[in-house]
Amino acid sequence: MLLNILAIGDIVGQPGIKILEKKLDNFIEEQNIDFCIANAENAAGGSGITVNIAKKLFSYGVNAITMGDHVWKRKEIYDSLQSEQRIIRPLNYSPLAHGRGYVAIKTEGDYVVGIINLLGRVFMKPIDCPFRAVDVAIEELSKQTNIIIVDLHAEATSEKIAMGWYLDGRVSAVVGTHTHVQTSDERVLPKGTGYITDLGMTGPHESILGRNIDRVLKSIVTQVPTRYDIAEKDLRIEGVVITVNRESGKTERIKRIRVTESDNY
Question: What are φ and ψ of residue 6, in 5° steps?
C-alpha cells in the first residue's frame, strides 16, 4: 500500500493563500493525495502566520503547517503553537519556547504521519544543532510511526544535502524550504529516503522571492532600506509529491509539482 504526501513550498502572503484556495482541494482530489504539509512562515504579509490564516489553510486541505525563522513575527500565534498540534515550529529553538517541533498526525486512512520541523544554522541566526535535535525527535516518533517527513528550513544547500544523507534510511523524506527557489535535485537516496533541496515558493513568481521587483531593486541599487511589498502576478503552487510505502516507511518516488493559475485544477 502506498501513501501520497504533498509537501508545499513557502507560502508567501495573500497571493500564496489565494492560489491555494483556488487550486489545492482539486489537486488533492485528482492526484489522490493522502496528506498535505505546507510551510507557511511567510504567509502573513510575507512574515509569520496568523490564527485566521492557519484556519484557512486547514480548510483548503492542508493537514500540517511547518514554520521557520519568522515563526515569532506574529505574537497572536503563540497560544496556537501551544494548543494546535497541526502547527509546528523549528524543533531546535529553545525547549522553553512556545510550541513543539515535531508531531504525529493520523490520516483519514488511519495511518500516522510524523512531521519534524528544523532550522538550519549556516548563514542563519544562532540556534541549537538541528542534527542532534532531529535524533531525539526520530526516537520519539518512531514509537508511533515509520512514516516521517522532515522540513529543514535552511539557507545553505550544503547543510540541507548533509541532512538528507544523515537521515537516509531513518525517515521517509527530507525536504528543504526557505530559499523560495525550487531545485531540480529530487531523488530517492540509497536507503529509501526521498530528498529535495528546496520545495520552491507558493505565491507570486513575477517577483524577487515573492516581493515587488521594483522595491527590491531600488533597495539593492541605492542601498537605502525600502519596504518589500508582496508582488501579485504569476501565482504558482510549488512542492513535491512523495509516494511512501506504508509498510516500510520508505519513499518509492518523489515528484516535483508546479500548479499555475491556468492549470485545470
Answer: -95, 125
Q: What is the pTM of this model?
A: 0.96
Which of 178, 164, 227, 230 lies closest to 69, judged by CA?
178
A 10 A CB-CB count for 167 gives 24
CATH number at residue 195: 3.60.21.10
For 125-135, what is each residue's pLDDT tens digit? 999 999 999 99
197: containing domain: 2-259
Q: What is the pLDDT of residue 49?
A: 97
Number of folded domains that form the chain: 1
In a domain? residue 264: no
Asked if residue 180 lies in contact with residue 209, where contact means CB atoms within 8 angstroms, the answer is yes
Which residues form the catalytic set? 70
In this structure, what C-alpha cell is assigned to residue 59?
A: 480548510
The length of the chain in residues reads 265
Q: Residue 140, Cβ neighbours under 10 Å: how many?
A: 12
Asked whether residue 145 is assigned to any structural domain, the reply reads yes
Are 12 and 43 within 8 A, CB to CB?
Answer: yes
Q: What is the mean pLDDT of the chain?
A: 96
| pLDDT tens digits, one per residue of 165-187 | 999 999 999 999 999 999 999 99
